[in-house]
Structures are given as C-alpha cells and as structure tokens.
Amino acid sequence: MAATVLAKQSPIVTLEAFLSTYKNPDLPQARESRHFLEAKGLLPLLYTSPLFTEFNKLVSAAIWSGSISYGTSHRPLISLAIDENTLGSLDGTLQTLETTLKWSEKGSNLGEHGNAYSRLASCIPGIFYSSGSQESPDKKARRQVTLPEYYSFLVKHYRYIGGAEKDIARSIIADSLNLFLQLKVPENDRPLRYYLHLPENESEDVGKNLGGA
Fold this sequence. Notes:
Layout: H1 15-19, H2 28-39, H3 52-65, E1 66-70, E2 76-80, H4 84-97, E3 101-104, E4 107-110, H5 114-122, H6 149-157, H7 164-181, E5 185-186, E6 194-195, H8 204-212
Antiparallel strand pairs: 1-2, 2-4, 3-4, 5-6
C-alpha cells in the first residue's frame, strides 16, 4: 500500500454537513458556532486540524461513558457520565477547547460552546447517534454502536503514515484507548484482572464486532 498522507484526506466533517444540523443556518446561533469552530481550526474538521487530537478526547469520552443524542430542543447534545479519573484526564482538553461541563443528578452536559461541539461531533461518520430525547431516550442497546470512521481509518493505515502525521495518528489511537480503559472494573479477589464494559448492542454478534474493532 502506498504512503497515506493525512493532509490529503477528505474532511471528516465539512462546513455543509455542520450547517445541515440547523433548521436555519443563517440564525445568529449558527453563525456564532460556525465562526467559533472556524477560529479554532476545527471547521472543516480535518485529520490535521490543530485541535483535532483534543476534540477526539471529547468524542471518545462521549462514546465510552456518555452519549450523543437529541436534547429537549431537538438539537444534538453530548452527555457524559464520568468519574473523577476521567474528569481529571479531560481538564486540559476542556480548557483548550474553551468549553465547560454543566452538572446535574444524571451526569453532565457541555456548557460554554457545547452546542458547537455537540453538532460537530454528531456529523462524524460512524459516530453512534441516538434519535431519542431526554424524555424518551433511544437506548444504545437498540442501535448498532460503531467506532468513528476516522479512528478505523487511522488504525488501518497506521503503518503507512509517516513523519509528524504519525504522531497525530498515534495520539488519536492512544487517547481513545486510554479513555476506554478508564472504565475498567476490578474482578473480585483477582489482582490485576479487570472487566471492560462495552456499550450494549442490539445483538451478541454486533457486540463481538465492536469488541473486535
């Protein structure tokens, strides 16, 4: 296989895809989110976007310990259910992305600029996206949970990526696995043995495919 150049890959999320999450992309809120993400270098979202590795941490936290779903206003919403260890690993990420967490009894949602990041994440090909609402949630077990296509692409092409771009690929893969491994649960009376809980899936075969991935 020929060398894989990340800078030459198609955008993970285009501007058009992001704006399509709004009923009216000319609304002030849509323009504000667009300009914020463009200033951050995250729109369009590219493998070489300067903050892509930090944004990936947020996406990975939503995959393994949260969800991306519709909120009460029928817009994408990232929710997290994270413990102190995971929260600590995201402190620098939240500061860099200039966002915050709003806490409630059920967990936490993104605060400042959360609308922009939730909409951007919802556009990523392969992302698990629930069509439920806070009042009537669409549980993960009813859908096939998959990994983002950008993650699978980097794993598949990793050996063919060179130079500084290999550092990007390595960081994406390592950070995603790190957030997944933070969910490990000790096995009773078995030192250094742990369970890893995958999200529920619609069938055993689908669950095995996710585990294999």
